[in-house]
Amino acid sequence: MKHLFALLAWLLFPLVAHAATPSAKPVKVFLFAGQSNMVGSDARPERIDEFPLFKGVGAPQPEVLYTYLGSKADSGFKGWEPLRPLQSFGAELTFARRLRAQDDAPLAIIKSAIGGTTVAFDWNPDAPEPGQKLYPRTLALVQGALRDLEQRGIRYQLEAVIWHQGENDMLDRKLNTNYAAGFTKLIARLRTDLKAPQLKWFIGEVSEKGIWGMDNRHNLAILREQQDQVLAADPLLRWVPTSHLAFEVMNHGQPHYHFGTQGQLQMGEAFAAAYLKEIGKPLAPPDRSFKDRLPVAKGARVRLFVLAGQRNMEGEDAFASQIPQADGFAALAQAQKDVFYRYSLGGGVKTSTGWEPLGPVDYLDNFGPELSFGARLRKSLEARDGIAIVKFTHSGAQSPDWSPRGSPEARRNLYPKFIAFVRDAKADLVRQGYDCTVEGVFWHTGENDTFFGPYQRNYAAAMKELIAQTRLDLQQPALPWFISEQHPKAIWRNMEAVNTALKTMAQAEPKVFVIPTAQLPHERLHFGTRGTLLLGEELAQAYLKSR
Description:
alpha/beta; Rossmann fold; 15 strands; 37% helix; globular; disordered N terminus
């Protein structure tokens, strides 16, 4: 099979050469580089079709030329072949697919990534010991690949470096405060040695959703500060957020070190979106806003509902493309024009520009309990009253990020943004002439918080503080809070202890309701499509019962 792919690649070269005649566009060449999360560790090709948005991505892409660094120390350029997943795969698959859909230039990808490598040693252009001497090996790979294109008469343009790395530098306190200097040297030397002084770099974030986001928060913050220094000093660098993307979880409930299959597929799309924006071809989401006015008479009462939280509230593993097949919920695939919606997802990665009809948002093919929640309320509440839903979520956050006292890492501080988002939504409705009341906050228990001992032990107390400060800042001392439990079938650890502590807290706090979820369907990590739809109905029913 390997020889067949090689043969196909050679047969394709006349087509590429023909496409790269002087009147045609040159081949855009991208270097994908970094460590294990650029390799694609724990991303399994056989799982690709489990994710509706990415079905078929595992098929070879013969239009895309591909070469990669071997694992042996003396490996260099060994020839081009069609892009395809190997035993694992990284962001290159969906990156290439998206670019081919949006940009008609021919495409080539060079990949040099080895797990567990550092900028301090392995990627250091001066190649000190110890280290895998990845800089000279990568330089030889790129120069060999480009020389091969030249020898074939194929015009090319070295377009950008796609980079994801930093975990191993971050973990070593002798290295992490020198990351900016080492990374700056790497970028400068590669531009010089490739004679590409304007070469752009797209730098992927080390995800806060992984285990480092908890037990190494301080070191992760240092790495981000070091990266920010490099970004601020170089106008040719671009930052690509990733903490909102799917991230694998180990079978004992520990957040992983790697994005895994779904996360890698999403990360390729994120890199592609950043690049397409850079070249003036941004992915334009459909305009979902109300074109004229909100569909409620001026002066009417509008009930405002706040949904907030992390993974399950954001909607990870609940796929909008599966809603039409969900018995009893197919209509929710379409916009609910009599319920208006405003959102900030992924910690602000995806936000609405104003009020929209409630419906699936173009965001990772995911949705949360808001769709069935809104539909259930609309059936039961007075027709003359408006229903507005505000959703503020970040699937990569943990309880310290929501603390009203401020996160230990200021950049991760969500509470001021959350409370401002709710206030602004209410104020906007009032400005438009509506009698707006905040009816309640609906929260799903934090998933990562159950695994990590310090968070788990303090979760109920942290929620009590969050509830109290929200009531104070919104000037509603009796504002109801509805907290749905973690599901007992989920693999997160300490769930029973967290659920029990929340129930104890709720018994002592007025207008705090804990909603059981054991009766709902649930998948390995999250509620999934049907479970999320049923969760929304449970949240709505709890509110209706409390009135």
